[in-house]
User: Fold this.
Amino acid sequence: MKVGVLGARGKVGAEVCRAVEEAAGTELVARVDAGDDIGVLVESGAEVVVDFTHPDVVMDNLRFCVEHGIHAVVGTTGFDEERLATLRGWLADAPGVGVLVAPNFSIGAILMMRFAAAAASFYESVEIVELHHPDKADAPSGTARRTAELVAAARREAGLGPVPDATSTSLDGARGADVDGIRVHGLRIRGLVAHQEVVLGGVGETLTIRHDSLDRSSFSPGVLAGVRAVAAHPGLTVGLEHYLDLD
Ligand SMILES: NC(=O)C1=CN([C@@H]2O[C@H](COP(=O)(O)OP(=O)(O)OC[C@H]3O[C@@H](n4cnc5c(N)ncnc54)[C@H](OP(=O)(O)O)[C@@H]3O)[C@@H](O)[C@H]2O)C=CC1
Ligand SMILES: O=C(O)C1=N[C@H](C(=O)O)C[C@H](O)C1
Assistant:
């Protein structure tokens, strides 16, 4: 499998290049960074592209890949419903091309999101705290957004109302961001990599589900799993869990 990496010099991209070079059955044929000619992906015969770049450039990258029939495994964040709909539109004109957009490739983070969704219907209260390094481009994290959406959907399905909160006066931002009715708080601390807590509460008890990526190598096995499977999943897939057998 010939693989090109977009954002190859970046913090995650460099790790992905290493993993692709070391893995069996994958060959790194192109490294592309800001300012490079993306056409090298076609010239090098890349069958799959991995994108860990920036929310501002990822859509242009993906349009190029889809138009040129190259499958894409995307870790870059910044995807909302509008962007996903645009991607689906491009893919409708490119039968057979697969794009995987995953807010988090680490297995622990995928399980954390799953456990949080499973617990959501049992608790009146829930809030999310995401903690990252201070060089992160976006807030809240893609993982926190996705977790909030999953938790909110589980609460709706269970017939739970809004999360209780009697706050009637506060400084802007003191209660975090509202994502689908779920409060999300972001910390940017030197020394951290990528961490998240989902704090749930009911009568007389709390449950905290926490995940820590201590090193960016935590994303590589999931990225490689995506690279190997994306061609067999034409169209758009959101979340690596759809490629994994978690049951
Ligand atoms: N889904 C997941 O599991 C994970 C997702 N992420 C996400 O991945 C993204 C990248 O994170 P991170 O590696 O920390 O960021 P970095 O800033 O370290 O890396 C981004 C890289 O992309 C390059 N780049 C910028 N524009 C382009 C372009 N048009 N074409 C090719 N390369 C470009 C940058 O180059 P230059 O520096 O020269 O501008 C840089 O090398 C973020 O959105 C982050 O949230 C991160 C970790 C895990
Ligand atoms: O920028 C990062 O570092 C990370 N970004 C992703 C996100 O926004 O969820 C995944 C992980 O949290 C690391």
Q: What stands out?
A: The chain is about 30% helix and 25% strand. Residues 6-7, 9-13, 32-34, 52-55, 57, 75-77, 102-105, 137, 142, 219 surround NDP (ligand 1) (CB under 6 Å).
